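REQUEST FORM: STRUCTURE PREDICTION
Request ID: SP-0412
Submitted by: Lab K.M.
Chain count: 1
Length (residues): 454
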Amino acid sequence: MPSPTPLRILLLAFAVAACGGDSGSGANADIPSQPAPVDGAASFAQIQSTILTPSCATANCHVGTTPQGNLSLAADVAYGNLINALPTNSNARDDGLRRVSPGKPDSSLLYHKLVFPPGHHAHDYGNPMPTGTAVLSIGQLEFVRQWIAAGAPKTGVVADASLLANRSAQVTQPFAPLAAPAPGEGFQLKVDQFPVSANFERELFNYRKVGNTSDVYVSRIETSMRPFSHHFVFYTFSSGIPPGLIPIPGVVRDIRKPDGSMDLLNMIAMGYHVFLGGSMQAQSNYVFPAGTALRLPADAAIDLNVHYANHTSAPVQGEAYVNFYTIPQSQVVHTLSTLNLQNTGMVLPPGAVTTSTKDFLFNAPTTITGLTSHMHARGTKFQIRIVGGPRDGEIVYENTDWEHPQIVSYPQPIVLDKGQGLRSVVTWNNTTTRTLTFGLTSDDEMAIIFGYYY
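STATUS: Completed
RESULT:
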């Protein structure tokens, strides 16, 4: 186990303003109007004016001093930030992608992020874009593809401008409920359908009983969410939670009031959350290494957290499913636990870039199978390094996109001896006029390492 660290104040489950919802509109829906193309304009200028500026370089997205993914798509910097630039998504980097690889649409992350349905590529490249509104039209997507295929020049007309008049949406499949595990193979929990008002972000919790009468061992977690989802995260509670704060099963707890202000009463229980798993993707399937599993005790209950962002002019429906697939205890060689390692001591002066470091040492040999991170909107880089031993100082995790942290699995687990550990090295750019410290709201900051270990 790690040496003692404060565990009571945990994660505000990504409760921050998002770049919108995400997974597209309904099948074959018409795309809302966008700025009209300019006759004779260069192809990249058309992309900037009709796609990037109205759909991407918007508040809380790819613009400003702390843009998502460290990628500003404002008109004066977008081209330089895209061409041959390495993406922040580690899976995309490992697959040899660039944000835009001139002449190679299939090697360009920008193109992959605009294609629906999500999951068309082999690995997790993060949520498709743009989020919280309609997907690009078939014509817009083909215009971008032609521009990249022609070498992605900054000037010159290399794509068919008439494509931008094609407002037919990319075809997406209607949402279907996730099939539950077969009897004896696992358990399904869901957040029933709920409305998300126009131009509104709705985030809620729903505490659900798993339905297991004895201990079970989870080897795989599968999730599915309706379009416009931002995340789906699930928690248990620490043993220190006062009985009066344990939520009533099945009761929806919104953290935002209809006027958008935070409902602090519904947020109190979050201080006792213990991370169990989650996904930022519309569909995900997380498989634990062979011979390992998470134990859920008999009569377990899980707090389900969903976040939807609707930046359209009409209401949408939210819904989320999670399947916990189980294996017999006899197949479990190592029972996994979850890491919750927090640096609660950061002090971030206004108008300054600050890096805060904290070491978490283990008092017994520890094997880590997966890591992820959590910081809020002013976070620009989260590194996890090894402390001690022959790999001292080695970076084993890095995230520069505060809103879309990846869960990195290690085919070769990280093995640490007693006295060794992990170091969080987190950098923030505090663009506000006040000092920021660790806290639960999106106006505060966090530095938490989550993961799985035995």
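NOTES: The longest strand covers residues 316-327.
Reviewed by: T.R.
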